[in-house]
Amino acid sequence: MYTPRQVVEETGFSLDTLRYYERIGLLESIDRNAAGQRRFTEKDVGWLGMVRCLRDTGMPVAEMIRFAEMIREGDHTVHDRIALLEAHDRRVQEQVENLRERQRAIRNKIAYYRSVAG
């Protein structure tokens, strides 16, 4: 079991973000100990790792919630989950290509300035 502070350290999410994710249903209801303090499982931390990946690659919160709901609905949603992730993967690929293009422009500008700087 993980304390909220340990989950913050493990995932990089703030306590407020963890509470928000629980409130909106992105994170399932977290167990509490006898004193009422949240206790996260290994499964919770693993799921938050996936949420971090999706968030860092620009997936909208609404899509992340839909993905979480599909997982909770069971195996009959696997094809829908694949479709959602494939669509997101295509958007990520477009972002990567766009960044590579921008990087080439930056490197060209660096090369130009080096050539005139002597």
Provide a brief overview of the structure.
The protein has 118 residues and is mostly helical. The chain has helices at residues 4-11, 15-24, 42-56, 61-73, 78-117, and strands at residues 31-32, 38-39.
Task: Please provide a written account of the structure.
With 118 residues, the chain is mainly alpha-helical. Helices cover 73% and strands 3% of the residues. It has five helices and two strands, in the order H-H-E-E-H-H-H. It has helices spanning 4-11, 15-24, 42-56, 61-73, 78-117; strands spanning 31-32, 38-39.
* Individual helix count: 5
> What letter string, H or E per element, gives the SSE order?
HHEEHHH
- Residues in β-strands, percent: under 5%
Helical fraction: over 70%
Number of strands: 2
Widest sheet: strand ordering: 1-2
Q: Overall mean pLDDT score?
A: 96
| Span of the ends, CA to CA | 60 Å
Sum up the overall morphology in one term.
elongated
What topology does this entry show?
Layout: H1 4-11, H2 15-24, E1 31-32, E2 38-39, H3 42-56, H4 61-73, H5 78-117
Helix pairs in contact: 4-5
Give keywords.
two-stranded antiparallel sheet, 5 helices, elongated, mainly alpha, 118 residues
